[in-house]
Amino acid sequence: MKVAVLDDYQNVALQMADWSPVARRAEITVFTDHLADPDDLVERLAPFDVVAVMRERTPLPRDILQRLPQLKMIASTGPFNASIDMAAAEEFGIHVGTTGGSVAATIELTWALILAGARSLVAESRSVRDGGWQTTVGQELSGKVLGVLGLGRIGARVAPIGTAFGMDVIAWSQNLTPEAAEKAGVRYVSRDALFATSDVLTIHLKLSDRSRGLIGPAELAAMKPTAMLVNTSRGPIVKEAALVDALQNRQIAGAALDVFDTEPLPVGHPLRTLDNVLATPHIGYVADRPYRIFFGDTVAAISDWLDREDTRGS
Q1: Do 217 and 292 sit in the same domain of this protein?
Q2: Which are the catalytic amino acids?
Q3: Which domain holds residue 79?
Q4: In Å, how far are 175, 211, 230, 247, 298 from 205, measured between CA atoms?
């Protein structure tokens, strides 16, 4: 058996778990780079029986899966992966195994981005490194309005931190009710009010047909010119071209982004260079505990599948 571990950017997958239950029965190859071209990806994966993917870094749609007749199993980190065509995998007889996870790291990064954006920490740190001193006047969060778009597993835990900072926390989503918002300790508002009144608007929705492109030119135009948009969810929830335009024209004050339409973010993309953008490379879940859960459970999922294959063959 041959196992491919994809997109291990930091080259840490084999250190985060004991892979010996798999290594005893399979040859493991770790890839630290990312292939976006479908033909290159198919060529790379053609010899492998098992592919371990890190979240949605490498999508596996039908047109890829149908070109990989050798592939028998996909081990996907996290409890679900929207970038894998599950119907196609079932049709082609490919078993898909998933793992547990942890949302704490994403919640922590959300607040790291909010605080860093409000106090211009990157610019001030760079000034010190370059021999300078104070260059900006920060924004105090106390008394400001925190808008939470999506009050699910992550949003519901982001919200009370805003309250602890003395912020007025409001929330809206398509499924949220006033009763659920009150139970979470936040104020339910209309969609229009969320965009019009938030000083910091943070996105915590799953990417779906309903949420894709939910924030476009009209929503960005409705926001305060002093507002900051924070996205640690999924890039396509925000129409990227509209966001770039709003940032270039100072329609909103800034954005703190961990997710993008195309990842890795292309070299030369304006979101890499705009001075009112704080960008991080989709590191919401890139932390020690989530990685240990991801890779430990990946080993268990592959090992269990190998056991079943051995039983079938005996």
Answers
A1: no
A2: 234, 263, 282
A3: 2-101+287-313
A4: 11, 7, 12, 22, 25
